[in-house]
């Protein structure tokens, strides 16, 4: 009985092996790649009422119902020099404005403290107009930003850049009045030299004056503006998520980095600190069909 069982098993293995062989001219079985559905409905921005906003009409710590903190000092993938804390000295609301302040001090093993606020889980959006009125820090070594990341990892093996990034404000203190808007995806990102973006020089000093920075995000394009003037548009190039992962919810981040691979390209001027970013409001208007 045992011998018969072994014979049948060997035969089955042989048949399975033969069945799995392909002739030299036989095409391999295609592997499916997820794609983004086509755009079938036209959207437009409804600016009548925000669906989410912080007007900073209170005092003290940022509203915990709207903001959380990224905390740590590991360089954040950009060789940055600051430690992000959740302390009042680094992030607070006063006189109707959010203050994010970078301080020159020894803090948790780093030479600077700062803050990075995130709306993840408390303000997550799919399409719309994100509007931020802000005054930026000044001086060599500062790297403030207002930007967006995917709330969940829906694409690829890596959270970044596979799931996308939208930069509404990027500014480096060694190039004072130039504002940058960018997008990053798996196919288009700075780490491989393919990122998509543009920049504009503000008409008045960005550290002495408030300006309105905005992003209009629709199913087929993303447009970045300064004071109502569009200066960068990224049109959806294909149905591939590698080029357009922007069909899922994103959240907002506000921060001041110090130094780093871009902000620190010309060094850090320690005499400028403390430096702050002041935010008058953050508003999100819906995109409607």
Automatic annotation (TrEMBL):
Boundaries of every GH16 domain copy: 22-289
GO molecular function, one term: hydrolase activity, hydrolyzing O-glycosyl compounds
Transmembrane parts of this sequence: none
Any one Pfam family match given in the protein's UniProt record, by short name: Glyco_hydro_16
Origin superkingdom: Bacteria
Listed GO biological process terms: carbohydrate metabolic process
SUPFAM superfamilies associated with the record: Concanavalin A-like lectins/glucanases
Record PANTHER family: GLYCOSIDE HYDROLASE FAMILY 16 PROTEIN, GLYCOSYL HYDROLASE-RELATED
UniProt family annotation: Belongs to the glycosyl hydrolase 16 family.
Protein name (record): GH16 domain-containing protein
């Amino acid at each position: 009985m045992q011998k018969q069982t072994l014979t049948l098993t060997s035969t089955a293995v042989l048949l399975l092996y033969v069945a799995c062989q392909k002739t030299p001219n036989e095409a391999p079985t295609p592997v499916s790649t997820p794609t983004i559905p086509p755009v079938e409905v036209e959207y437009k921005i409804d600016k009548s009422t925000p669906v989410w906003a912080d007007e900073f009409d209170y005092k003290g710590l940022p509203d915990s119902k709207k903001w959380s903190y990224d905390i740590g000092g590991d360089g954040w993938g950009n060789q940055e020099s600051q430690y992000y804390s959740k302390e009042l000295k680094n992030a607070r609301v006063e006189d109707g404005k959010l203050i994010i302040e970078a301080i020159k001090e020894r803090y948790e093993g780093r030479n600077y403290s700062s803050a990075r606020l995130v709306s993840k889980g408390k303000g997550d959006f799919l399409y719309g107009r994100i509007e931020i009125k802000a005054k930026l820090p000044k001086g060599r070594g500062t790297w403030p930003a207002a930007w967006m990341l995917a709330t969940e990892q829906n694409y690829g093996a890596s959270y970044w850049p596979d799931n996308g990034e939208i930069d509404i404000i990027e500014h480096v203190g060694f190039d004072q009045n130039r504002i940058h808007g960018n997008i990053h995806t798996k196919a288009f990102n700075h780490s491989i030299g393919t990122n998509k973006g543009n920049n504009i020089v503000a008409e008045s000093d960005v550290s002495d004056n408030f300006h309105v920075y905005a992003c209009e995000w629709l199913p087929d394009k993303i447009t970045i503006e300064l004071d109502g003037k569009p200066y960068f548009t990224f049109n959806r190039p294909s149905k591939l998520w590698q080029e357009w992962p922007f069909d899922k919810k994103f959240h907002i981040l506000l921060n001041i980095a110090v130094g780093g691979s871009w902000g620190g390209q010309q060094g850090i001027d320690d005499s400028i600190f403390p430096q702050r970013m002041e935010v008058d409001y953050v508003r999100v208007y819906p995109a409607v069909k």
